[in-house]
Specification:
This protein is of the alpha/beta class. It folds into 2 domains: about 120 residues, Aspartate Aminotransferase, domain 1 (Alpha-Beta Complex); about 220 residues, Aspartate Aminotransferase, domain 2, CATH 3.40.640.10. The protein is built from 13 helices and 13 strands. β9 and β10 form a beta hairpin.
Length: about 375
């Protein structure tokens, strides 16, 4: 009887967080503003010939390299950040190697590491959920081959300083250090929020991932970016799929990059929405983390499931993160458009009141 590798057979299956699309989807950090109208116009102009030919990823890589002020040899376009993670992990991780990261963070990191037979080394963040830099440094060993840090982090929304990130990269010269900047566009202006893209030349073991799923509103097209030293990107080109990025995504890329006014307006609206959530949580006496992303993590208390269900009955989908390390009683709420947020804030008030009443808490 045909059987898979033991490592694969022993993995816990990934379960999509999409349970239902009935309601306002504030559970997956998607853009509620959609994408640039210029992207839509370009997609509508695609011809049969555009879709019948294999896509030319290299054209898109030149575009994004120019935008990021990098050489095309430093950039690899991928099918979302998920593929970037898979390529990087497969290139540098093998059985017995160590994958190092801090909890809580993006769920795909340990899943991919375990599938490759790597030893997953988790470092628990402190109570405030900031990046435990000192603890990470102490866990680096000769077996450490990949260190991955989401900055800003998901699900906390917190950002680490560029100095701390470079300290980790310098301390592990034999490990690939990936800084996942999926939410970078939302943290402009924060002192801690600085990209490490300019540091790639000085740190050949450093990698940066970006995505068009969040600030650009293109999650459905699956378009990600992996940047590093030309030699490291070259290794991944050796076995990466040649036509991994589809023609529609490549067609929309140029217009998405060109319409930075759309991105700036969307980011500004998200920041205003974050502030509205923060003011409400302060008013309700709820602990939350100061976010540099398009979502906010808030502790609603136990059981968080009750609050999530109450929000769903009011037509708003939010994400329960209470099972994540250090996130007991926590829920992650994506920021909607200004018009949507009026109803979201009211739904939160009602759901908190209902949750407290059902559990006998009047405080």
């Amino acid at each position: 009887m045909l059987k898979p590798r033991d490592l694969i057979a022993g993995l816990s299956p990934y379960h999509s967080p999409i349970v239902s699309r009935a309601g306002l989807s504030l559970d997956l950090n998607e853009s509620m503003a959609g994408c640039s109208p210029r992207v839509l116009a370009r997609l509508r102009s695609l011809s049969a010939a555009d879709l019948s030919l294999y896509p030319q990823r290299e054209i898109g890589e030149r575009l994004i390299a120019n935008f990021l002020r990098l050489a095309p040899e430093q950039v690899l376009l991928t099918n979302g950040i998920d593929e970037a993670l898979s390529l990087l992990f497969s290139t540098y991780l093998g059985p017995g190697d160590e994958l190092l990261f801090a909890d809580p963070t993006f769920v795909m990191y340990p899943m991919l590491g375990e599938a490759l037979g790597a030893q997953v080394v988790r470092v628990q963040s402190s109570e405030d959920l900031t990046l435990p830099v000192a603890d990470l440094l102490t866990r680096i060993s000769p077996r450490t081959r990949v260190i991955v840090i989401a900055n800003p982090n998901n699900p906390t929304g917190l950002a680490a300083s560029r100095a701390d990130l470079l300290k980790i990269a310098k301390a592990a010269p034999d490990a690939a250090v990936l800084i996942d900047e999926a939410y970078f566009e939302f943290c402009g202006g924060a002192l801690t929020c600085r990209t490490v893209l300019p540091d790639l030349a000085r740190h050949p073991n450093l990698f940066v991932a970006r995505t068009f799923s969040k600030a650009y509103g293109l999650a459905g097209l699956r378009l990600g970016v992996l940047a590093s030293a030309p030699e490291q990107i070259g290794y991944m080109r050796r076995f990466g799929l040649p036509f991994n990025v589809n023609a529609a995504a490549l067609a929309g890329l140029e217009e998405a990059l060109a319409d930075q006014a759309f991105v700036r307006d969307h980011v500004a609206q998200v920041k205003q929405g974050r502030e509205r959530l923060a003011h409400l949580f302060d008013e309700l006496g709820l602990h939350f983390w100061p976010s540099q992303t398009n979502f906010v993590l808030v502790r609603v208390g136990e059981p968080a499931k009750t609050f999530v269900e109450s929000m769903q009955r009011r037509g708003v989908l939010v994400r329960d993160f209470s099972s994540n390390p250090g996130c007991d009683g926590c829920v992650r709420i994506t920021v909607g458009t200004p018009k949507q947020m009026d109803g979201v804030l009211q739904a939160i008030r009602e759901a908190i009141a209902a949750t407290r009443e059902s559990h006998g808490d009047n405080g």
